[in-house]
Amino acid sequence: MSTIRVAIDGPSGAGKSTLARSAAGKLGFVYVDTGAIYRTIGLYVFQNHIDPEDGEAVSAALESIYVDLRYDGEGRQQMLLNGRDVSQDIRLPEISRFASAVSALPAVRAHLLELQRALGRVHNVIMDGRDIGTVVLPDAEVKIYLTAAPQARAERRCRELEQRGTPQPFEEVLRDIEARDWRDTHRAAAPLRKAEDAVLLDTTGLDFQESEAALLDIIRERTGL
Q1: What string of H, E and C letters represents the secondary structure of the chain?
Q2: What are 111-136's pLDDT values in tens digits?
């Protein structure tokens, strides 16, 4: 039987991961957080003192990096870097810049492309990232561009950081989000953009329950579930 693939793209802090993970659980799909995959590469680069914007150095390091995914009993994605669980390490604030930089490198994107596509061939998936509907799964059954105003995304990110015990000032978080938006939309390799056949979902004025309901409505309407 063919699988159902839901591709969700959008800017940093739009709530893609939280919403996609919850929706996948309700639909019985596998959730794939591609941002976590790039964060894992970024973590290796960070830990090995490699300039994340040095394409040659990062490309050379790829042969020493083995990235794998596994899922716990509740369906939560865990990231393994060379056999070690780094699911918590990749969420440290300083890894965000490294993840953004390495994800702009064509060699890194090519290196991880088949890993992402393979998951969509064997599972019903909800996969989120920056270029899922445009590059990774261009023929996905459902494509959604999930976004929100920068200020709303910064507020959500601040709450998330506080809950993790790593609070940051709002102004700093907002600057980081705006800088990430610029990098993601202006990079040469697979820039962030809305696929022509993607449904736009703006969650600026919606709470979590409303956002999830809207997301599920789109998926069910497009798939007949």
Answers
A1: CCCCEEEEECCCCCCHHHHHHHHHHHHCCEEEEHHHHHHHHHHHHHHCCCCCCCHHHHHHHHHHCCEEEEECCCCCEEEEECCEECCCHHHCCCHHHHHHHHHCCHHHHHHHHHHHHHHHHHCCEEEEECCHHHHHCCCCCEEEEEECCHHHHHHHHHHHHHHCCCCCCHHHHHHHHHHHHHHHHHCCCCCCCCCCCCEEEECCCCCHHHHHHHHHHHHHHHHCC
A2: 989 888 988 898 899 999 888 999 99
